[in-house]
C-alpha cells in the first residue's frame, strides 16, 4: 500500500476531522507485493501460525513469526518445529531469528530459508531479560561492531532471501543509536528495518516516541516500518504522517482484536471508520481461532495456549475477570469452548445490542454487558 501523507493534527485533539488524505494501493516491499503496509509484529508466544493467518485474513499485509532460536541443538525440539511450520500460511513467509553469534545466526537463516522462509528477520528489539542476558535481542544495540558482523554474516548466508531487521531506538534514553544501527544495516545489505519507539530500558513503560523513527527514515534509503503504541486508526495515520515511515507494525493492540488491521486499512483509504465488530462477530472469531489453535498444537498444549487468547477476546466485558479465573481451570477443549459460548450467550441475553456494532473500548463493552 503506498501512502501519500498530509499534515495532520495529533490524535486526541478535539474537533479534528480526518478527511481521506491518503491514497492506497498494494505495497511493493523488498520484492513482494503486499495487500497493504500493515505488519503484524513478532511476539513470542503469540504470533504462531494460527494467529498470523487470522491477522492476514483480517487485513494485515505481512505477519512476522515469533522468534526462532539460532541454536542448532534445539532445531529438533517440538517448539522449534512448530515455529518453523508454515503449512498453508499465506505468503510471504517472514521468519524471525534471534541470537548473538554471527555464525549461528547465519546457519539459522540458511536452515529456515531451506524450509520455506521467504524473508529472514533478525531480532535486535526484544527487551526481555532472558534474551538480553545472553546479549541477544535489543542488548545487541550496545555493540555496533557485533551488529555489523551479524548482519553481514546473515545477508551473505542467504543471498537469494531478503533480510530485514527489527530494533529499538537504543539501549537507554541516553544511548539512542537507532540511526547508526540503521546505517550499518543498510550498508550490510539489509532490505528493510522496523523500529520500535522505545529503548530497551523502557521495556513497554511510558509512551513510544516517534521522533527517532523519523530521524531513521530521513537517514536511510531502505523501507522503515514504525512500531509502538499504534492502537487506533487515527493513531496509525498520525504515526505515518509524523515519521514518514513506509509502513506500520502492530503488536499488542492486535491481541484479542485482530480486526484492527482492516479498521486501519479502511481508515487510511477513506478517512472513515469502519463499523466496529459486533459481539457476535467477536464470539465467532474467538471460536474459530480456538479451533485453529487446537488443530495446530493438539489438545494438551492447545488448551493452555488458548487461555490467553480467550482472555484477550473477553477483556473489558462485565464479568470477564471471574470468567477468566474459572476458564483457566479447564483442561478439556469442549468444556473450554462451552464456557466461551456461555459467556457470550449471557451477553446476548443481557442486551438487545448483541448484533449491533460496538466501539471496542472497555467502557462501551461494559455498557453492552450491563
Q: Please, how many domains?
A: 2
Please write the CATH class name of the largest domain. Alpha Beta
Report the radius of gyration as a whole number of Å: 21 Å
Tell me the CATH topology of the largest domain: TIM Barrel
Average pLDDT metric? 85
CATH superfamily of the largest domain: Aldolase class I
Summarize the biggest pleated sheet.
Answer: 9 strands, parallel
Helix content: 40-55%
Query: Helix/strand-derived class?
Result: alpha/beta
Distance between the termini: 41 Å
Using the 3D structure, state the CATH architecture of the largest domain.
Alpha-Beta Barrel
Contiguous low-pLDDT stretches (5 residues minimum) are 1-21, 129-135, 352-370
Biggest sheet strand order reads: 4-3-11-10-9-8-7-6-5
What pattern of helices and strands is seen along the backbone? EEEHEEHEHEHHEHEHEHEHHHHHH
Q: How would you explain this protein's 3D organization?
A:
- The protein has a 9-stranded parallel beta sheet.
- The protein has 2 domains: 27-270, TIM Barrel (Alpha-Beta Barrel), CATH 3.20.20; 279-369, no CATH class.
- The chain starts with 26 loop residues before the first strand and ends with a helix.
- The chain is an alpha/beta fold.
- Helix 1 runs antiparallel to helix 10, helix 3 (102-114) runs parallel beside helix 5 (144-157) and helix 6 (178-188) runs parallel beside helix 7.
- 42% of the residues lie in helices and 12% in strands.
Amino acid at each position: 500500500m503506498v501512502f501519500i501523507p498530509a499534515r495532520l493534527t495529533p490524535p486526541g485533539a478535539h474537533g479534528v476531522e480526518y478527511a481521506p488524505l491518503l491514497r492506497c494501493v498494494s505495497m511493493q516491499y523488498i520484492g513482494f507485493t503486499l495487500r497493504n503496509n500493515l505488519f503484524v509484529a513478532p511476539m513470542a508466544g503469540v504470533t504462531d501460525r494460527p494467529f498470523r493467518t487470522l491477522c492476514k485474513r483480517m487485513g494485515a499485509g505481512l505477519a512476522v513469526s515469533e522468534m526462532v532460536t539460532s541454536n542448532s541443538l534445539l532445531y529438533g525440539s517440538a517448539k522449534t518445529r512448530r515455529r518453523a511450520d508454515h503449512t498453508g500460511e499465506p505468503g510471504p513467509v517472514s521468519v524471525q531469528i534471534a541470537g548473538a553469534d554471527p555464525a549461528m545466526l547465519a546457519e539459522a537463516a540458511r536452515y529456515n530459508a531451506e524450509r520455506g522462509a521467504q524473508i529472514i528477520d533478525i531480532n535486535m528489539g526484544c527487551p526481555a531479560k532472558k534474551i538480553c542476558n545472553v546479549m541477544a535481542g535489543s542488548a545487541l544495540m550496545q555493540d555496533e561492531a557485533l551488529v555489523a558482523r551479524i548482519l553481514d554474516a546473515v545477508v551473505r548466508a542467504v543471498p537469494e532471501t531478503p533480510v530485514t531487521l527489527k530494533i529499538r531506538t537504543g539501549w537507554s534514553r541516553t544511548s539512542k543509536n537507532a540511526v547508526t544501527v540503521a546505517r550499518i544495516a543498510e550498508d550490510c545489505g539489509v532490505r528493510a528495518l522496523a523500529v520500535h519507539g522505545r529503548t530497551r530500558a523502557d521495556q513497554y513503560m511510558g509512551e513510544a516516541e516517534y521522533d527517532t523513527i523519523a530521524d531513521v527514515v530521513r537517514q536511510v534509503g531502505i523501507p522503515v516500518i514504525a512500531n509502538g503504541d499504534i492502537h487506533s486508526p487515527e493513531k496509525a495515520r498520525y504515526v505515518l504522517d509524523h515519521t514518514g515511515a513506509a509502513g506500520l507494525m502492530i503488536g499488542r493492540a492486535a491481541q484479542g482484536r485482530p480486526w484492527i488491521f482492516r479498521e486501519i486499512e479502511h481508515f487510511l483509504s477513506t478517512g472513515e471508520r469502519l463499523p466496529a465488530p459486533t459481539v457476535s462477530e467477536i464470539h465467532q472469531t474467538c471460536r474459530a481461532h480456538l479451533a485453529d489453535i487446537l488443530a495446530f498444537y493438539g489438545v494438551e498444549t492447545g488448551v493452555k495456549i488458548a487461555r490467553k487468547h480467550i482472555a484477550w477476546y473477553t477483556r473489558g466485558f462485565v464479568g470477564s475477570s471471574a470468567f477468566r479465573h474459572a476458564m483457566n481451570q479447564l483442561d478439556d477443549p469442549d468444556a473450554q469452548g462451552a464456557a466461551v459460548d456461555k459467556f457470550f450467550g449471557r451477553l446476548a441475553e443481557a442486551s438487545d445490542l448483541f448484533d449491533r456494532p460496538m466501539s471496542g473500548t472497555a467502557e462501551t463493552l461494559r455498557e453492552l454487558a450491563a
